[in-house]
Structures are given as structure tokens and as C-alpha cells.
Amino acid sequence: MVRIIIEDLVFRPQGRPVIDGLSATIGSDGITAIIGPNGAGKSVTLRLIDGLLRPDGGSVKFGDRAPEAVRRSFVFQSPALVRGSVRQNAALALMPLRLSRQEAAERLDATLYEVGLLHRADDAARKLSGGEQQRLALARALVIHPELLLLDEPTASLDPAATAAIEEIIRVAAQDGTKILLVSHNLGQVARLARDVLVLSRGKIIEHGNAEAIITTPRTSEARAYIRGELPWTSFAAAC
Ligand SMILES: Nc1ncnc2c1ncn2[C@@H]1O[C@H](COP(=O)(O)OP(=O)(O)OP(=O)(O)O)[C@@H](O)[C@H]1O
Predict the structure, then answer these.
(1) 33: domain CATH number?
(2) Can you give the residue ranges of the ABC transporter domain (predicted)?
(3) Rounded to whole angstroms, how far apart are CA atoms 126 and 201?
(4) CB atoms < 10 A from the CB of 74, how many?
């Protein structure tokens, strides 16, 4: 179980405050979505939590566990696949685990089956469709049996059917006990999947709570504007 405690996190490249004193305690189960307008700092927050970026202040703690003891995976919006087969791509993630050959093969088959790619295991990864490539990226993330899975807009460029397939994989992973942090602009997806939501604006959390409550009745005007899709020129156009 991974509880994430973020305290006064600051990321300030060249002095520009991108993340500006962000604090939150994120519960150890279910799916937590991070939403907010472009440039709010969602991806940076995910990277700071994962340790891909170093903060300029504050901390991210996983309860009382050392960060390196928390098995975790990160899936990006565009899957970075290497040359080789579907199976070889997924197998890369297993290398640090030093499993026996048989155990690794069993795990790979089980995970490729879960994401619906076992029948494509020997095909070239780069020949997969966008949705299949993202399922492979998820297989590579899930094959290590992560305790924490960080997903940065995993369905941003996918059609509804491919999105539904990815959402089902995410749902099953969460049911199996993986804690999931999901950055998404797809509020339907957030409503379908998330238990709780963090709303970011200009590097700060402006709301954190139950997903349904935040999506249906956001408290702050900024969250309301984002969720209702108010664009800056809406009121200007109305005034003309
Ligand atoms: N590694 C980095 N170093 C310095 N600045 C960065 C880095 N990554 C992102 N930024 C800057 O931080 C700001 C927030 O970026 P971020 O990608 O976190 O936004 P976001 O909320 O995920 O936006 P979007 O919804 O458009 O993906 C941007 O101005 C971006 O240019």
C-alpha cells in the first residue's frame, strides 16, 4: 500500500515558479486523477512524484518507505517503444527484477494476455496501431506488478474504442491493488475511473476531494471555469 505525502513542493526552473508550494496527502488505494488547465503543472507534478524531476523545495514521501522501495511505473502520452517485438518491449521492464527465465516468460504472457496483445507477441512493436502501442506501454508498466502506476494522459490521442480498452486495463489494475495517479483532460474518463481528484492551477492545488463532487459542483471559480470549459473569449463574445 502506497500513501503519498507531498509537502510544500516547489519546482522553479530558472526562478520561474512552475510548482509553487504544493501539498497533498493521497490515499493508498483507488485512482486519483490530476486535472487542470494546460500548463497548470500536472505533468511536472507526476514527474516530481516519480523522481524523474528533482524539486527545488519540499518533499514527496511514500509513508515511511524509501522511494526506491516503492515499485512503480510511468506511462507517457506517447509510448516510447524500442525496435523489436511486442514481447521484447514488455520484457525490458522485467530485466531489473532478475526473475528466472520461466517466471519471466509466464509473467510476460499473463500481462500481454491482460492487455489483449498475447496474439501479437511476436509482431514488431512499431507496427502496432496507436491504441495497441499504448496497451503495450501499459503491459510494460504492469509486468513488474507496480504498487504505484503514474499515467500521463494515456489516452490523449486515442479513439473512443481504444480509450475504452485502456480504461478497462486501468480499472482492473486498480482493482488488483495498484495505486494509480492519472493525469487527464478527459473529464468523462475522470468521472468513470477516479475516486478522488486534485485540481491544479498555476502550480497549486485549488481543490482536492471526491471525484463526483468536484466534477459536478466545483467550489472554486477557477475549477468551475476549467470543468465547464469556459474559454477566456466566451464572455468577450457574449459582451459583443
Ligand atoms: N523539465 C522541465 N523543466 C522546466 N520547465 C518545465 C519542465 N517540464 C515542464 N516545464 C514547464 O512547466 C510548466 C507546466 O508544464 P506541465 O507539462 O506540467 O503542464 P500540464 O499541466 O501538464 O499541461 P498540459 O495539460 O498542457 O499537458 C510549463 O510551462 C512547462 O513549460
Answers:
(1) 3.40.50.300
(2) 4-227
(3) 36
(4) 19
Task: Give the residue numbers spanning the domain of 222.
Answer: 1-71+185-240
CA–CA distance, 146 with 112 (Å, rounded to integer) = 15
Question: In this structure, is residue 38 part of a structural domain?
Answer: yes
Q: Is residue 11 part of a domain?
A: yes
ipTM confidence score: 0.97
Q: Do β-strands 4-11 and 19-26 pair in parallel, antiparallel, or remain unpaired?
A: antiparallel
Using one digit for the tens of pLDDT, what is the confidence trace for 12-22?
999 999 999 99
**Atom 12 in ligand 1: which residue has the minimum CA distance?**
18
User: Distance from the CA of 18 to the center of ligand 1, in angstroms?
Assistant: 7
- What integer best gives the mean pLDDT of the chain? 92
* Residue whose CA is at the smallest distance from ligand 1 atom 16: 41
Q: Which of 12, 43, 150 to mutate to test the pocket of ligand 1 (most atoms within 8 A of CB)?
A: 43
User: Which amino acid residue places its CA nearest to atom 11 of ligand 1?
Assistant: 18
Could you tell me if residue 210 is inside a domain? yes
Residue 135 lies in a domain: no
Q: Using an 8 Å Cβ cutoff, are 209 and 223 in contact?
A: no
Q: Grid coordinates standing for 161?
A: 474504442
**Over the stretch 193-234, which tens digit does the pLDDT of each residue have?**
999 999 999 999 999 999 999 999 999 999 999 998 865 544
Count how many domains the chain has. 1
